[in-house]
Amino acid sequence: MMLSPDQAEADLSWTQSDPESLLNGLKSAGCGSDEPTDGEERAKCRSDQPLSREEKRRRRRATAKYRSAHATRERIRVEAFNVAFAELRKLLPTLPPDKKLSKIEILRLAICYISYLNHVLDV
């Protein structure tokens, strides 16, 4: 994470590596008592502290619904990517025409073919 020059180090209290200082910070906020508490009090204690934008994003991304939606979006993106390569492949001359080419081979062949067509137009 990059810090801007005007950002104070005090804003980064979550980066403290000393567990004792973290525990003291929680106790001062009223969340670190050694006495056992029921679930409602524990939830209340957690909700008293505002979550950072990063923590909210992390919690949202941890849900099964979000992961499922993300996987679906990624699948659609990869399918569109593969369709684009297939269309490009159809435009390129090769012998034999049905030869299976990798994506990098398709790109290299396309570059060579475009160069060839430019040369033909220049002559």
In short:
The chain has helices at residues 19-28, 39-48, 53-61, 64-91, 103-122. It is mainly alpha-helical and 123 residues long.
Task: Describe the protein in words.
The protein has five helices and no strands. The chain is elongated and about 75 Å long. The chain has helices at residues 19-28, 39-48, 53-61, 64-91, 103-122. The two termini are 54 Å apart.
Q: Looking at the structure, what is the overall shape? A: elongated
Mean pLDDT across every amino acid position = 77
How many helix segments?
5
Rg, nearest Å:
28 Å
Q: Please report the total strand number as a whole number.
A: 0
Hey, roughly how much beta strand do the residues contain? under 5%
Biggest sheet descriptor:
none
Order of helices and strands: HHHHH
Structural class: mainly alpha
Helix content: 55-70%
Q: Spans with pLDDT under 50 lasting ≥5 residues?
A: 1-5, 7-16
Distance between the termini: 54 Å
Give me some keywords for this one.
disordered N terminus, 123 residues, mainly alpha
How are the secondary structure elements laid out?
Layout: H1 19-28, H2 39-48, H3 53-61, H4 64-91, H5 103-122
